[in-house]
Amino acid sequence: MTAGPCQPAGPPALAADHLCRRFRGVTAVADVSLRVAAGARFGIIGPNGAGKTTLFNLLSGELRPTTGSVALFGRDITGLRTYRRVALGLGRTFQITRIFSDLTVLENLTLALHGLSRSKLSLLRPWRSYRAKMAEAAELAASFGLAQRLAASASDLSHGEVRELEVLLALALKPRVLLLDEPAAGLSPAERVDIQALLTSLPAELTLIMIEHDIDVLRGVVDSAAVLHLGSLVIQGTMRDVQNDERVRELYLGGAGARAPEILALEDSPPPGTSSPEAAGPPHEAGPQGPTSAGAGDGP
Amino acid sequence: MQQFIAQTLNGLTLAGIVFLVSSGFTLVFGVMRVTNLSHGAVYLLGGYIGYSVITATHNFLYGLAAAAIGMGLFGLLLERTLITWLKGNEMSELLATLGLIYVIDDVSLAIWGGSPLTINLPGVLGGSSTLPVSGIVYPNDRLFILAVSIVIALGLYYLLRRTRIGAIIRAGVDDREMVSALGINVRRVFALVFTLGALLAGFAGVLGGTVLGVYTGGDSDILLFALAVVIIGGLGSFEGAIVGSLIIGLIETYGTAYFPALAYSILFIPVIVILLVKPQGLLGKVNR
Amino acid sequence: MTAGGQAPAGRAPAVEARPAGPGRPAGRGARAALTALRGSRRFGGPVAAVAGGVALVLLLQGNGFTSTLILDMLVYAIAAMALDFLGGYAGLISLGQAGFLGVGAYGVAIAEVHFFSPWAAVGIGLGAALVLGLALGIVAVRVRGVSFVIITLAMGQVLWGLAFQWVGLSEGDNGIPLTILPSIGPFDLNDPLTLRMTVLAVFAVVAALLVTFVHSPFGLSLRGVRSNETRLAALGYRTGLHCYLAWVIAVFFTGVAGVLYIFVNQLISPATMAFSQDGLLVIMVVLGGLRSIWGPALGAVVIVLFQQELSIYLDRWQTVMGLTLIAVVLFSPGGLWGLVRAAGRRRDALIARLEARPGKRGRP
């Protein structure tokens, strides 16, 4: 069931209905409803603590919602455990990378590649003898420049390579919808370019939902977004709609002084509202502007 | 009925001893993430030391003090050396304390021999009293243990809930990095908690030596109780240790009294129930 | 038997040692051999062959005392390897395995007491271990890490306690002697030589199976569980199921060891299941080297040797056991097998230096 980015018919790739998650008095996610079309490139943005990762945990099955439901291509998955959702085509990466650091890159990929097949319970054949899977692992690694690192222990990889491996692990499962939690976090400017290239090279049929603070990574990849604040949805729409929205501007540019410093602290990522050509007022960032984020004239 | 009340008191007494041992174990785990398998051996060694001192001085309090202080110092030494060297590697700490059991047991065997010993309490503590209401005659040493356990439990509760150091300890259970970030000397807190745990275990060893005896294998027995307590109550939870001790003490005592054939396995029933229903323990809060 | 052990970090896994493949200089014997040796992880094969040969000779020799020693080593090696599979690879270190060894042994003994035939007794012993494993596993794999250690310790202790107190069944402290071993046609385990060969054969089979399992996708999944269980679940694995299977396999093989134990020793008593025995198994695995299968077998050899030989000269051998474990944990967490691997890496580095000398053809 593949769909191009502009396909209106068919159920949304991922739909959340009135999702709510409370932890002992703290409401991390409050009544969030989302519709992400098949093939869309969708961003989830918001200040730190807005509940974005919790939302992801609800979507991927790591957490159960207090109320509300999640549907994948029209099918209700609210009650399903993570591994079942994976089998239905929902993939995910993690903000704090979760790779198998005491295994080699090849072993990491092999684990992922066996994830959806019966062979993961196979006891008698050596895993190296699965030629097709070995070839696939090599291909995957090669497609993102990790071909030379197959034999390396995952703990020896650079931070950028770890993030790439993180994405590769999710891709190995051939997801139809991929949740990416801050894929560019902690990367150097050069590494961010690589990650952005990786993300744009993903197949068009794959629906991407991405949490990200880096405006350039977002701008290059995402065509619509939802903004979260304190667990609630502020707005969902195209990037232009989001950037122009009053509430979003106030959120990032300083209604409440408490919000502004967080955005200012993001070194190379000026707040979304200020980078569009129509932005009024001077940028508020502290710290040096990286080359990739200079010049607000790049347009959407 | 009288029998039931007596057994209940027995169960509470056992619960008291088990509480003293398991509270130290669970606090050490909660604050330091250290699983000190040698905790039972420390209890036993405390019992042996207490026995020797009491036999030599005929003074029960000296024995208690010697065991408590001696084991406290031992705990401090252990924490400063072995635990520090292992730098927070949980499995290594577990394995190293496992090895320590063999060392302590063997040395104890060498010094005190393999025959079971009993600590007999002098004077009034060695006798019995008639309890009000029910008219049961009940041994004073058990009443003493019961009283002491309750006092210590209250004391620990006060320490944890009402003092600054207690707040630091509780905070450490919740979030060790944060405590360190607040500028508190975490290493000193570790040393304190570990020492306190060992002290309690040594103290309990003397108390246990009166009603349970001091014998080879006593460390495994008490360790099993303590572990059952922390599974039921929750690793790292002080209140869980209280609740768990009561459950274990009473079930074990009633079980042995009324279903003697099942004695050893009766412990298992609440443990299995908890693992099936709430694996992190009744009051467990430590994230695994 | 495939090569034992895991690739040290950094080794190219696809480059298995091949003496002369296409593209390599044939005829340059020494260099080819060097290249072949480099990257070779085949410690397991040669070492096992040598050790097996030694064991075979000693067993055939007929000296009762030596062969009982070797047989004890083999029995405990089986239990230790099984524990490594569960504890080393999946990270679920069980401190209750001696309990399951005892169940296997007691199963056989009690069955014979109740007049079952020897082969049926074997079936009952194995069956008891298997059933207990299946049942207890449901509870045990609900927790991980330290909690798992604790719950298995408790299980082991409860089983020991039952052996002690359920006198009607187990005859308590005295234990149960075994009089008749199974026989089928000419194959009679009552004959010492047959028994010795059988134990050796069972050991070889179990070792081969475990090494195979370890190199399978399932074995890799266990390492994944230990490494990052939540990620593995996010990759579609039912990690609880994998842990359960590993547990059942380990408990079953430990039961096998138990059956062999009573054949070799012709007596089972609660002492075999005491906590010190659980600890000893863990010491064997850690001393030998976690995650190597062969290492724990080696560890079993060393510990059984210590237990029998050291105890003659040294009253305080238990202290030595404890200090050994502490020392291994502090100074050489990879155990004896880790030392072997480290030596292998130094050898490879040396070979690399030799190969890189000027005038020689570089590595393709």
Report how far apart the termini of chain C are: 29 Å
How many H/I helices of chain C?
Answer: 14
Q: Give a count of the beta strands of chain C, DSSP E runs of length 2 or more.
A: 4
Q: Flag low-confidence runs of chain C.
A: 1-27
Output the helix-strand order of chain A. Answer: EEEHEEHEHHHEHEHEEHHHH
Which word captures the global form of chain C? globular
Structural class of chain A: alpha/beta
Strand content of chain A: 15-25%
Low-confidence stretches of chain A: 255-300
Output the radius of gyration of chain A: 20 Å
Lateral arrangement of strands in the main beta sheet of chain A: 6-7-8-3-9-10
Can you summarize the main beta sheet of chain A? 6 strands, mixed
State the helix count of chain A: 11
Quaternary organization: heterotrimer
- Average pLDDT reading of chain C: 83
Helicity range of chain A: 25-40%
Q: How does the helix and strand content of chain C classify structurally?
A: mainly alpha
Describe it:
By secondary structure, chain A is of the alpha/beta class. Chain A is 31% helix and 20% strand. In chain A, strand 9 (224-229) and strand 10 (232-238) form a beta hairpin. Chain B is an all-alpha fold and 288 residues long. Chain B is 74% helix and 2% strand. Chain B has eleven helices and two strands, in the order H-H-H-H-E-E-H-H-H-H-H-H-H. In chain B, helix 9 (218-233) crosses helix 10. Chain C has helices at 29-37, 44-61, 64-89, 97-113, 118-140, 145-165, 167-170, 192-215, 217-234, 239-265, 275-288, 294-313, 317-331, 335-355; strands at 176-177, 183-184, 187-188, 267-268. In chain C, helix 2 runs antiparallel to helix 8 (192-215), helix 4 (97-113) runs antiparallel to helix 5 (118-140) and helix 11 packs across helix 13 (317-331). In chain C, 52% of the residues are buried. The model of chain C is unreliable at 1-27 (pLDDT under 50). The chains are: A alpha/beta (300), B mainly alpha (288), C mainly alpha (364). The B-C interface holds B 29, 35, 82, 85-86, 90-92, 94-96, 98-103, 105-107, 109-110, 217, 220, 223-224, 227-228, 230-231, 235, 261, 263-265, 267-268, 271-272, 275-276, 279, 288 and C 93, 95, 139-140, 142-147, 149-151, 153-155, 157-158, 160-162, 164-166, 274-276, 279, 282-283, 286, 315-316, 318-319, 321-326, 329-330, 333.
